Amino acid sequence: MNSSERGQAILQEIKTTNVPQNMLAVWYLGQASIVIKGHDHKVIAIDPYLDSVPYRNFPPPFSGQELTGVDYVCITHDHIDHLDPVTVKAMTAVSKKTKFIAPPCCEELLKTCGVADENIIQADTNHPLMESGIEIKAIPAAHETFEYDNNKQHRFVGYMIDWQGVKLYHAGDTVVYDGLVELLKEERIDLAFLPINGRDYFRNQKNIIGNMDVREAAELAVAAEMNTVIPIHYDMFAGNTEWPGRFIDYLYEHYPFQKSHVLARFERYIFVSEKAI
User: Fold this and answer.
1) Would the pTM count as exceeding 0.70?
2) Is the peptide bond prior to 5 cis by the omega test (within 30 degrees of 0)?
3) Which residue ranges form the domains of the chain, and what is each CATH number?
């Protein structure tokens, strides 16, 4: 199966997968990009990055124009591998109903990409959203520090999505900061997606802003008592990668009862919550 055929197979999976109650289907598209589908047949994309630029380590499975039927797009911040103008323009061109949830600082860029005012929802870390029975909370993220816009709204966020009996956390780009463990522990997270690419002086000198590393992500998952953790943000760009096996090795050595999973490239993963059993 060539890459084009694989891409079409994934799109067909997204379209035809029927998700039972208390489960979620997730597709990993690389970097921090995931697609999620629930029992109600709604689809959410988080940080879709589908531009086929030559500096990617691998091409996207399909274009933004082909990713149709998405109800909500959650954007964590305005860096190009999270808010990709090429992808947003393509998605907006084929669907006028898709709503984009993003920090207020992203609003002007979204409008430039053709997103209508009525389809932009501000990700306010002080006010959860209830959209079609799905609760979506924006969680502050520190990439590597907190940054704010002129109205003192967070520029970087993660998302907590309470949907169909499953609570999912996508951290966006962040380090572990004071209070994060307590915040996440209180949420009782079923499925978490955490960046593991880390940070260092030499990458900072190249304006590569970092995240938690393998050890920090593993320790966060355990301290916050997450049910299952999946590493992300390790595979897209040369010079800013990490081996996901190191994450699994660390958990196996120190916390062998912590559930985890490394997603194969473009894999469909079905999460089954304990409520489904």
Assistant:
1) yes
2) no
3) 3-272 (3.60.15.10)
